[in-house]
Amino acid sequence: MTLRFDRLRTLGLGGLLGSALWLAACDPQAIKELEEGVATEADVVQRFGQPERVWPEAGGAKTFEYNRQPEGLRNYMITIGPDGRMSALRQVLTPDNFRRVQPGMGVEDVRRMLGKPAKQVPYQLQNQIVWTWKFLEQPNETRGFNVVFSPDYRVIRTEVGPDPDGPDMRGGG
Known about the structure:
Elements: H1 2-33, H2 41-48, E1 53-56, E2 62-67, E3 75-80, E4 86-91, H3 95-100, H4 107-114, E5 119-123, E6 128-137, E7 141-149, E8 155-162
Antiparallel strand pairs: 1-2, 2-3, 3-4, 5-6, 6-7, 7-8
């Protein structure tokens, strides 16, 4: 019985990993098929699925949040204009966006800028909460961008660190 459960659990985890890899592999194709000013909201949803979150924008526009964390290394924000057409598609886990995260910012501002993090870890002894996003640093290294929040979810500081999941276990390191 335990062997069967372990096998099912392994297959379940493999299925999740396979789905994450399939999703990440589909993003470049979906991006190629979406042209700013031409693609509609329906086109975006057809290629990317339902967004994790929808952010209202000025003038009736809205931004769809598509997270690829914790398995992926990218998060996307896709803006739909008031005319129902895609006006922007951005991969938001970038050094420029990381630099924009400043002490005193609120948690919603950070989430709106970077999307959902890969991890949220409370450190009760330090009275802090750390959110981590996994990202790809050139040429090909997985790293973690950490935002340290106070108990009232205001940014204390940011830091870039090693891959939060440790070295690549597939043989690269």
